[in-house]
Amino acid sequence: MTCGLLLAAPGTGWAESFGAQDSRSAHDTPEEEAGENLHKPRHGGYFGDADDLYHYEVVLADAGRLILYVNDERNRPLDVRALTGQWIVNPDEAGAVSGTFAPSADGAYFFATLPPSQGDPLHLAVAVLKEDQWATMEFYLPKAGSIAAATR
């Protein structure tokens, strides 16, 4: 199963971007509030839940540098040095461009440099192998320059 993520401002959920009301009430338990915080980005990027196997946060930095944080199903950070990750730009097009992620030295995240000029918003699919299954997630991201302009 492939999931999609709506375009939203960095660090916010889609609901807040479209003016939805906060669903928490004064009666939420600490456990319920903690559960809601499981599905929020921690690094200013875009968050997604990939097939209940992994949680992803993607950050698109300047010069096409892509960072992918991979967390387990409880949203605890994983050491990516033991994982295999791939990316695909414009996965639905005949000229899709793909590559493999490299792990950071400390294993905190994957990184890659994307080819220039791939559209705005950028249609990106990321996938990480878990046992024998690829956990895929698609994102539609504004380019880094667009993010800066939108947040000024």
Task: Describe the 3D structure.
With 152 residues, the protein is mainly β. The chain contains 3 helices and 9 strands. The protein has helices at 14-17, 30-37, 144-150; strands spanning 46-50, 54-60, 65-71, 85-89, 97-100, 102-103, 110-113, 122-130, 133-141. The chain has a 5-stranded antiparallel beta sheet with strand order 1-2-3-7-6, with no helix packed on it. Strands 5-4-8-9 form a 4-stranded antiparallel beta sheet, with no helix packed on it. A hairpin with a 2-residue loop joins strand 8 (122-130) and strand 9 (133-141).
Condensed summary:
The protein is mainly β and 152 residues long. It contains three helices and nine strands, in the order ααβββββββββα.
Give the count of helical stretches: 3
Helix share, percent: 10-25%
Low-pLDDT residue spans: 1-28, 145-152
Quaternary: single chain
- Outline the biggest β-sheet: 5 strands, antiparallel
Question: What's the helix-strand series?
Answer: HHEEEEEEEEEH
- Tally of strands: 9
Alpha-carbon Rg, integer:
16 Å
Strand order of the largest sheet: 1-2-3-7-6
* Class from helix and strand fractions: mainly beta
Residue fraction in strands: 25-35%
Mean pLDDT: 75
What would you call the shape?
A: globular
Q: What separation lies between the terminal Cα atoms?
A: 36 Å
